[in-house]
């Protein structure tokens, strides 16, 4: 990994997140920038960590799941544990989404049925009102 460093504003601008979000991840122990006085100096590893957190959030991982993946980072082993864990989490997330999709489709069918019944009941009500009373 390169020895390039970043300020908090550099990372915020480059990754399109707020400095507040970066400080939050630091408070959660996910980032550990160097300090030069009051200035935070972030490493290339911090940048990769932030990218992993942001990617994880986009695909629905919790912060705890992101933390697990980050803790498995080990370039000396080719990150095999991290990659296998990521694949398992992806499969789990995909299964959750597929179940949610089935649940949504079932709910849509139930809404269709309820809507149809309401329309029929309304039509019957209007039909009875339209008949003259003699």
What proportion of the residues form beta strands (DSSP E)? 5-15%
Find the count of extended strands (DSSP E, 2+ residues): 3
In quaternary terms, these chains amount to: single chain
Terminus-to-terminus distance: 91 Å
What would CATH call the architecture of the domain at 1-61? Orthogonal Bundle
Strand order across the largest sheet: 1-3-2
CATH class of the domain at 1-61: Mainly Alpha
Global mean pLDDT: 92
Poorly predicted sequence stretches spanning 5 or more consecutive residues: none
Shape: elongated
Query: What is the CA-atom radius of gyration, in angstroms?
Result: 26 Å
GO molecular function: DNA binding; DNA-binding transcription factor activity
Protein name: Putative transcriptional regulator LiuR of leucine degradation pathway, MerR family
Domain HTH merR-type: 5-72
InterPro entries: DNA-bd_dom_put_sf, MerR-type_HTH_dom, MerR_fam
Can you describe what's shown?
Helix content is 69%, strand content 7%. It has 134 residues and is mainly alpha-helical. The protein has a domain at 1-61: Multidrug-efflux Transporter Regulator, Chain: A, Domain 2. A three-stranded antiparallel beta sheet has the order 1-3-2. Strand 2 and strand 3 form a beta hairpin. Helix 3 packs across helix 4 (63-71) and helix 4 (63-71) runs antiparallel to helix 5. The longest helix has 51 residues, at 80-130. It comes from Pseudomonas batumici. Residues 5-72 form the HTH merR-type domain.
